[in-house]
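Could someone model pyridoxal-5'-phosphate with this protein?
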Amino acid sequence: MTSNHGLFDRAQSVIPGGVNSPVRAFGAVGGTPYFVERAEGPYVWDAEGRRLIDLVQSYGAIVLGHAHPVVVEAITEAARKGTSYGAPTPNEIELASMICDRVDVVDQVRLVNSGTEATMSAIRLARGHTGRDRILKFAGNYHGHADMLLAAGGSGMATFGLAGSAGVPAAAVADTIVAPYDQIPELDDEIACVIVEPVAANMGLVVPDAGFIHQLRSECNRVGALLIFDEVITGFRLALGGAAQYWGVEPDLVCFGKIIGGGLPIGAFGGRGEIMANLAPLGPVYQAGTLSGNPLATAAGAAALSLLDEEAYVQLEATADRLASGLQQAFDSAGFTAKVPRVTSLVGLFCGEQLPHNYDDARTTDEEGYAALFHAMLRRGVALAPGAYEILFPGLAHTDEVVDEIVAAAGDAAAEVVAAR
Ligand SMILES: *Cc1c(COP(=O)(O)O)cnc(C)c1O
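Reply:
Sure, complex below.
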């Protein structure tokens, strides 16, 4: 049988660091990554045949559980008809309509291939619409890896302690202002847009004050800047209508990714028709993609969204609650210092005494404690994300029994970590 170790060696000879996205290399937690052979429901099986309860769930792209039969069937049926045409397809209308129907502020949506493309294009659109160059983002919010957004980025950047990235020219971030999260910035009329994770999920889970999101809307209105919600994680997870519905605030543009592709590569950005009309071919803002609106991705996404009804969100939240309260209790009784925040179906894990409110707070997380817990959990067959700044992704396939197994493993794992320290 192939070993994870052998695969990692081979991978490292042909792929930089052996991975196609940095956090996967286990740099932050140490050790050798497990290579996934297959997955089903809440489980993944690694190359050594080991079954793990998976709380990574493709960093939130999966919500129905792995290899959900309805999604697999939709992909299979689409694949038989061809994999890409370079011409419009009925599937695209289907997925776009589902997004527009479910998210009030989105009249029109354009499909792209990743969350990175969605935020990058939404910012170009905001700049084109307002005729302004400057943008504002919040420290610890992650919006993918476009140059202008690679400042104080959260997620993998936090994991590797990077403030920005080599290879990003000073000019590319010259018009990017970085402000502290959960604090209203003072804007001026040179700002094209403010982009925000309406619940931050890439510096652990940081739930802002409701007033922050509401006042951000008014501050943008005051200076004529667009408000962009990056809902690549919160979209179709925080609530059926995403964070816009949850907070009761209308952003001008919304970015999606992850869930809307049912596990296939996708992204989308949308908003009011009047703003979206600036996009080519209607308007002067260029945006394009050879594989955009891909028939497999749109079929998988539509299948996934079709199963996400009100009932699904009730179940999702109950599962998240069972997990969050179970973990908190397990850590408390083991004397392991950690907080397990939750908002609807989003669950965080912060190794520290006090819940963080911003990036500075979030970076006080005990990374060594997290790494120790991570490995103690992995030895017990539970996969957390290999980085202290990611969140947990309970989904519809995590039954109460599975959640209870995770909680029992966490109790043992935490006790082991505390004893070893
Ligand atoms: C994952 C993520 C992105 C980037 O999406 P990719 O598909 O990885 O490019 C952007 N914004 C947020 C909030 C994300 O979590």
